[in-house]
């Protein structure tokens, strides 16, 4: 018999932090609903918030970095992506200076943690 649970939490897909009920079956998310008792969304969630299931389980979700090539996008390993980005950033800074590099962290899942990582990353750049 499947173990069913409901975890009360907040959607992290944007800054509204809507209250949600995440329904699990044997540890897998099977449904995401708005929390009826959450004061600011009162049981409602938007299409983005309800897309959490696709983000977790859709067979065509992006699971590796994608690199644009002449023949379209191709999957590459994370290590390769990081190396190539670092090389390009170094080249830009060498040619145009430190202010030529900026970061937009986005507003996706885990944005609060992303902000911390971005702060550390930017502060780690050598600002001579
Ligand atoms: S349900 Fe929609 S509006 Fe609410 S936090 Fe998630 S993405 Fe934002």
Features:
128 residues, alpha+beta, N-terminal domain of TfIIb, 2 domains, three-stranded antiparallel sheet, two-stranded antiparallel ribbon, 3 helices, elongated, binds iron/sulfur cluster
Radius of gyration: 20 Å
Largest sheet: 3 strands, antiparallel
Order of helices and strands: EEEHEEHH
Give unreliable regions as ranges: none
What does this structure look like?
This protein is of the alpha+beta class. It has two domains: 4-57, ADC-like domains (N-terminal domain of TfIIb); 66-124, no CATH class. Helix content is 30%, strand content 23%. Strand 2 and strand 3 form a beta hairpin. The radius of gyration is 20 Å and the shape is elongated. The mean pLDDT is 89.
